[in-house]
Design goal:
Layout (H helix, E strand, L loop, with lengths): L1 E2 L2 E2 H7 L5 H5 L1 H14 L3 H13 L6 H5 L2
Antiparallel strand pairs: 1-2
Helix pairs in contact: 3-4
Length: 68
């Protein structure tokens, strides 16, 4: 999956402990996922990615993630 010329899937596989929402904020991650869904041909991979983001959520983030 590529977004703005960057391969996010490889990035996330390499940096599994990297929490996207701690750096960008969870709403920004949701926007990124929406963009990926719109432009990606492999939507199942995007859904798997979003599932991973939800699983990685720490305490206090799960409530906000549930809104999505």
């Amino acid at each position: 999956m590529r977004l703005f010329g960057y391969n996010f899937t490889v990035f996330l596989r390499k940096r599994r402990r990297f929490f996207l929402w701690r750096r960008y904020g969870i709403s920004d991650v949701k926007i990124m996922i929406d963009i990926c869904m719109k432009w990606s041909y492999n939507r199942s991979e995007v859904l798997l990615l979003w599932g991973s983001v939800k699983r990685w959520a720490g305490n206090g983030q799960e409530q906000r993630l549930a809104e999505f």
